[in-house]
Design goal:
With 201 residues, the chain is mainly β. Helices cover 12% and strands 48% of the residues. The protein has one helix spanning 177-200, and strands at 2-5, 16-18, 21-23, 35-44, 53-61, 67-78, 82-94, 100-107, 119-122, 126-127, 133-136, 140-142, 149-159, 165-175. The chain starts with a strand and ends with a helix.
Length: 201
């Protein structure tokens, strides 16, 4: 699920609610006249026990004024107990001054979609022009209480110059690899022990 807003709290009244994909070039008039095109997709690549999804963006500003945009992708019913983090990768940007891009991870405090009351992680903002860059938030622990829970990835885009800004890239939510490795080795050890016990019988 996606939300596209002109303020961080999505309280401006011009917000867009969408499914997994939004393309302003195909959806008719959109409520943000300063943006010539907004193309966003949320790809769920994980499971409830392996939270992983990608928010892809391609945003153009050709209006007369600087613009700001907040984009959220949310999913619920996660049961993974461990660390989660986000990374933002900018693949192409133009503009003078260059656009700003920053990603935030929310959730772990309820199982409601788009619950942004609890901030888990924040990437360092960076100037994305001419190309390219990435920043990483680090990991925060989730899944102790409540469980299941929701996670929401937020993307803030700021185009400081009118007419001529483009931001293109993706934000990834990933679980902590070390914990997944431990879980995998623990599961493998359990299966091996069961096989040994079966052979001894």
């Amino acid at each position: 699920m996606l939300r596209i807003c002109d303020d961080a709290a999505c309280a401006g009244g011009n917000d867009i609610a969408s499914g997994a994909v939004y393309n302003s070039l195909l959806s008719g008039p959109q409520p943000f006249p300063g943006w010539s095109s907004i193309r966003v997709a949320a790809l769920d690549t994980g499971t409830t026990q392996h939270p992983s999804f990608r928010l892809i963006y391609w945003i153009d500003n050709r209006g007369p004024d600087p613009e700001e945009l907040w984009i959220y992708a949310s999913a619920a019913d996660f049961s993974f107990d461990g660390g989660v983090g986000i990374t933002i990768v900018d693949t192409f940007s133009t503009g003078v001054p260059p656009p700003d891009a920053q990603a935030t991870l929310y959730g772990g405090s309820s199982n409601l979609l788009f619950d942004i009351s609890n901030q888990l992680a924040l990437t360092v903002p960076y100037l994305t022009s001419p190309c390219c860059g990435s920043t990483w938030s680090g990991f925060e622990h989730v899944g102790i209480d409540p469980n299941p829970y929701s996670l929401t990835v937020g993307l803030f885009i700021s185009h400081g110059s009118p007419r001529g800004n483009t931001s293109r890239g993706h934000v990834d939510l990933v679980p902590e690899p070390a914990l997944l490795l431990l879980m995998g080795s623990g599961l493998a050890g359990t299966m091996l022990a069961r096989r040994r016990r079966t052979r001894l019988r």
